Amino acid sequence: MAKLINGFESKEGESANHLNIYELDAASNNSVDDIRNLIDQVRYPPQFGKYKVYIIDEVHMLSNQAFNAFLKTLEEPPSYAIFILATTEKHKVIPTILSRCQIYDFNRIQNSDIAEHLKRIATKENIAAEDEALHLIAQKADGALRDALSMFDLIVTYSSDNKITYQNTINNLHILDYDYYFKVTDMLLANDHAGVLLIFEEILSRGFDGHNFVVGLAEHFRNLMVSKDKATVVLLQVSEAIKKKYYEQSQKMSLSFLLSALNLTNQCDLYYKSSKNQRLHVELVLMKLAHLTSAIKLSSMPADELKKKV
């Protein structure tokens, strides 16, 4: 933006100072004195170009006193000064500052867009990459393209054959494989509590945290729930191959099962940290889930048939 408004030509290796860009990290420079130093700099017009661009990062970290000291300059800035206030917590910026700003909201990048961007890079760099692996990187990046690129670079670096495979990705990023959750769900539907407990033991032995497993299982149930309806299947941020697996498994279970399973895993997540025996806490939930189909069948029986069963 500084290049555009100043009419500078694009030159590689150009430093920020040459572009009339000045940055203040408000997370560590949030006092009145720091703002006064900034205001003193603003008084001097640019030596080159028409505008000076001041970026205040994490602006919500400024103290109220610092905001008040900055207000006068923001109300009546010099004609050559442009301020960019960057924050992830807009609600923490005082209203008198917000009312004097143009507000632009930047949303998280969609996982599908990140995966597509990584695919273009892989093609350009002659790197063989599996779609499932790229979607997994995109999910782990949580909407941040910079993080996705860092992970992509890391996996390529540790790859001996210049390939990004699904298996290499889950190993390097220490992620639980989708297959674990599909296996666990199949066992839960078959009322196989012993098999589920053995898989949980295997997951723990691989160094994964029990809480991480519970959160992943809840996410798996949520994905199964949105897969049941064609209108909500677009909410799945996975590759087409995994989307198909979710759809196939979702047809094996009722919505009542999924809602009850989500409730149980959510409760487990909430109370995991405060539990004295965290492993037992998860195992109890898994055993409840393993007998959930039986409980749902009993609850749907007519009262007279239920009495005969008892």
Structural class, judged by helices and strands? mainly alpha
Q: Could you report the average pLDDT, rounded to the nearest whole number?
A: 87
What amount of the residues lies in strands?
A: 5-15%
**Helix-strand pattern:** HEHEHEHHEHHEHHHHHHHHH
CATH architectural label of the largest domain: Up-down Bundle
Please, how many domains? 3
Strands side by side in the biggest sheet: 1-2-3
Tell me the total number of β-strands: 5
Low-confidence segments, given as residue ranges, are none
CATH class of the largest domain: Mainly Alpha
Sheet with most strands? 3 strands, parallel
User: According to CATH, what is the topology of the largest domain?
Assistant: Zinc Finger, Delta Prime, domain 3
Distance between the ends? 75 Å
Shape: elongated
H/I helix tally: 16
Describe the structure.
- By secondary structure, this protein is mainly alpha-helical.
- The protein has 3 domains: 2-98, 3-Layer(aba) Sandwich (Rossmann fold); 111-172, Helicase, Ruva Protein, domain 3; 178-296, Zinc Finger, Delta Prime, domain 3.
- The chain is built from 16 helices and 5 strands.
- The chain has helices at 2-6, 32-42, 64-75, 95-98, 111-124, 131-141, 145-157, 166-172, 178-189, 193-205, 210-227, 240-250, 255-271, 278-290, 292-300, 303-309, and strands spanning 21-25, 52-57, 81-86, 128-129, 163-164.
- The strands form 2 sheets. It has a 3-stranded parallel sheet, with no helix packed on it.
- Helix 2 (32-42) packs parallel to helix 3 (64-75).
- The chain is elongated.
- The model has no long low-confidence stretch (mean pLDDT 87).
